[in-house]
Allergenic cerato-platanin Asp F13 (Choiromyces venosus 120613-1), 135 residues
Amino acid sequence: LLALMTLAASTVLAEVHSTAAYDNVYDLPGLPTLDLACSNGVAGLSSTLGFDRFSQVLHYPLVGAVEKLEGWGSLSCRKCFRQSGQSINIVTVDQGDTGFVLSLAALDQLTGGQGQVLGRVDVRYEEIGGWECGL
């Protein structure tokens, strides 16, 4: 995958290696956010932003789960990550088991339309400011 573009002035953390896969559940714009680990709580999509459906998330369909999210009500909810490849920005909305689990639309953008064929890919990512994901 292509090298990650760095920002001249941002609050980025160190780049980390991981993997990204997809789950079609994140491609459903009508999915209630209450079905997600990031539904409510101090950083919840519904409780803090009033988002009741995926389609309301400003960076949709560039959303997904991440293993570093500790579970319901995590302060890692709504974090924004830039991933390598086509250099896409992802909003965390749920807890995952391994690496990132994205919408197929997001994985397709990351892999040039090869998400379903590749299934899981190696990525490099860094946390970036929420404004870069429309938060």
